[in-house]
Amino acid sequence: xxxIDPNLVLNLIGTVAPVVIALVASSKAAKAHQEQINSRxxxxxYRFDQLxxxxxxxxxxxxxxxxxEQDISTxxxxxxxxxxxxxxxxxxxxxxxxKR
Length: 100
Description:
mainly alpha
């Protein structure tokens, strides 16, 4: 029959126990580290969403400004055309008015 040496059991426990303790501690540290990474990731995702909203607002303003500049340009061209037309009519009236 086999007999287990008590010193061997104590040595085995003395060797295995620190390894088990280290594995448990390492596992808990890894879990805490993963939770920290997840919370930072959530913050980054939130900030990214906020940045997307700001960019969208900026793009809308740029588009509206472009359209407004086009409308202003068209209005100035129309103003110049009407001004020239009024001047021609006034000149015509002066020249035609003198002939009457």
